[in-house]
Specification:
By secondary structure, the protein is mainly alpha-helical. It contains 4 helices and no strands. It has a domain of 29 residues. 77% of the residues lie in helices and 0% in strands. Helix 3 crosses helix 4. The longest helix has 37 residues. It starts with a helix and ends in a 15-residue tail after the last helix.
Length: 103
Amino acid sequence: MGKKLKKAGFWIRRRSRLPVLVAGSFVVLLLLFNEETSLRQNIEYEKEIGRLESEIKLNLDSAEYYRSHREAIELGRSDLEHLAREQFKMKRPGEDIYILEGE
């Protein structure tokens, strides 16, 4: 049994590419832990990109909302009155206002 193990060990040492394995391991470690290409930093960048994309979408929705209000004001007086009464809680004499707060 000892002879077979000795032969197997010799065969593994002869066939192994230790320098290639060391160099490959070094490259993998360099890619994972290098400051410019680290896996952790790439994950943080992906999170930031997602956050910024959602912020862009929110700002585009907000811009569309204000654009529609501006167009409504430019088009007519009744829309201006409706917007002013709704937004600034203005009322006509003898009129009651009910304010409902959402969740």
